[in-house]
């Protein structure tokens, strides 16, 4: 086979590999090419975060508006302090909104859903969520039910 | 009794000697890269015969494995009413495990055996020694391009395998069994991480490509130069490569995903 043909075919082969890598990166792992837009940080304290972890999503009305930066234990209050980074264009979340931990589907990932409040003031960068609702814990549910509370 | 012990000792020594020769050989090949003007065309020809020609079997097996994963996953997951997690299951299985491992096994069978037989026949027909007579180093001229071609082709093949497998799983899951397409991709994107899953899969396939190509060219170079010798070297290539790939896969998985 002519050397030129070999070169072209090998070039196509390498391109196929790169295409597959791009496919796996963009379509399968959901990596976005657009640089992460600017965000601001708010905090929420939970008594139980369940399986919430960094990179989890933060949504409002089902639409993703940010992601979870970190989950840490506050050593004074013994609550979990979750750092949320919210997209900068969503800057009018009412200050009395509630952050709740939800599960997508039966076996899905846990995420934070922001339930909209009615306050005219909005959350500022660095603010805390006033009301939070911890993860649903099936064992606790069952033990509460069994003990009749 | 003493005979058995002696045989064990001899086998161990033989194994160590052969491993030592293989390592020396590898060092010679890695150091002896020819000049780009000479080496590049050789490398391209080898990538063509090792990589491009393996593409068909990799694509076809990837498609079928993805479709089987889709069907099996659907049957299991629909018992729990969570068949929308099928995309996540298919993608994680393929990208982390099956992509690199099955591609490496196919590669050992399709390309590794061919490499061994080719080099073994070159040795048996004394082409390698006549090259040496002419002052051409066969390690540089024959072995190095083949080793590097295997090393470079394997990750590409594994990536193509994973992609085709996921598309095959989508074909079965979404088009045939009617899983909602949005949740198929959405669940997948939520659970597959580019660095932890995709890149670790690529690292695995690089390691496997290296090991498979090394075993293949070494077995060819080291074979007994008879037809029986070539045939046993080819068998050894496939057996050793498969065992090495599966064993290394366990170690790599433990290091990458074992959380310790």
Could you characterize the architecture of this molecule?
The complex is a heterodimer of chains A (149) and B (260). By secondary structure, chain A is of the alpha/beta class. Chain A contains two helices and seven strands; from the N terminus they run H-E-E-E-E-E-E-E-H. Chain A folds into two domains: 1-34; 39-136. In chain A, strands 1-4-3-2-6-5-7 form a seven-stranded mixed beta sheet, with no helix packed on it. Chain B has 260 residues and is an all-alpha fold. Chain B has one domain (35-257). Chain B contains nine helices and no strands. Chains A and B meet through helix 1 of A and helix 2, helix 6, helix 7 and helix 8 of B.
For the secondary structure, the number of strands of chain A is 7
**How far apart are the first and last residues' alpha carbons of chain A, in Å?**
81 Å
* Residues in β-strands, percent of chain B: under 5%
Number of helices of chain B: 9
The pair of chains with the biggest contact is: A-B, 29 and 36 residues
Quaternary structure:
heterodimer
Write a compact overview of the structure shown:
The complex is a heterodimer of chains A (149) and B (260). Chain A is α/β, with parallel strands linked by helices.
How do the strands and helices of this protein lay out in sequence?
The complex is a heterodimer of chains A (149) and B (260).
Chain A: H1 3-28, E1 39-46, E2 57-60, E3 63-74, E4 79-87, E5 98-103, E6 110-115, E7 131-133, H2 138-146
Parallel strand pairs in A: 2-6, 5-7
Antiparallel strand pairs in A: 1-4, 2-3, 3-4, 5-6
Chain B: H1 2-31, H2 36-50, H3 55-79, H4 86-124, H5 127-133, H6 138-176, H7 181-191, H8 194-222, H9 227-257
């Amino acid at each position: 086979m002519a050397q030129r043909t070999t070169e072209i075919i090998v070039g196509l082969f390498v391109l196929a590999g790169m295409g597959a890598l791009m496919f796996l990166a963009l379509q399968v792992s959901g990596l976005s090419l657009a640089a992460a837009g600017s965000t601001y940080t708010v905090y929420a304290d939970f008594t139980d975060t369940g399986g919430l972890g960094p990179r989890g999503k933060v949504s409002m009305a089902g639409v993703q508006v940010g992601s979870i930066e970190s989950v840490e234990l506050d050593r004074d209050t013994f609550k979990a302090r979750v750092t949320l980074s919210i997209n900068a264009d969503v800057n009018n979340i009412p200050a009395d909104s509630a952050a709740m931990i939800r599960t997508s589907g039966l076996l899905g990932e846990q995420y934070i859903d922001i339930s909209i409040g009615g306050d005219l003031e909005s959350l500022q960068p660095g603010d805390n969520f006033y009301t939070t609702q911890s993860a649903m814990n099936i064992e606790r549910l069952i033990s509460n039910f069994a003990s009749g509370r | 009794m003493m005979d058995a012990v002696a045989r064990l000792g001899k086998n161990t020594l033989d194994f160590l000697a052969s491993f030592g020769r293989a390592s020396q050989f590898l060092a010679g090949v890695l150091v002896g890269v020819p000049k780009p003007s000479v080496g590049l065309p050789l490398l391209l020809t080898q990538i063509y015969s090792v990589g491009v020609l393996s593409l068909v079997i990799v694509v076809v097996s990837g498609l079928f494995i993805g479709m089987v994963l889709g069907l099996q996953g659907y049957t299991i997951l629909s018992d729990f009413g969570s068949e929308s997690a099928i995309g996540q299951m298919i993608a994680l299985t393929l990208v982390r495990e099956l992509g690199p491992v099955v591609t490496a096994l196919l590669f050992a069978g399709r390309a590794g055996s061919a490499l061994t037989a080719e080099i073994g026949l070159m040795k048996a027909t004394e082409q390698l020694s006549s090259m040496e007579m002419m002052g051409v180093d066969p390690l540089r001229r024959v072995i190095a391009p083949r080793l590097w071609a295997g090393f470079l082709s394997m990750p590409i093949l594994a990536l193509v395998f994973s992609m085709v497998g996921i598309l095959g799983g989508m074909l079965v899951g979404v088009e045939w069994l009617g899983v909602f397409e949005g949740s198929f991709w959405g669940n997948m994107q939520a659970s597959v991480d580019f660095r932890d899953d995709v890149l670790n899969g690529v690292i695995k396939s690089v390691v496997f490509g290296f090991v498979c190509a090394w075993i293949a060219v070494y077995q060819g170079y080291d074979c007994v130069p008879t037809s029986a010798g070539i045939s046993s070297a080819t068998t050894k290539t496939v057996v050793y490569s498969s065992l090495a790939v599966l064993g290394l896969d366990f170690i790599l998985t433990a290091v990458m995903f074992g959380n310790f």
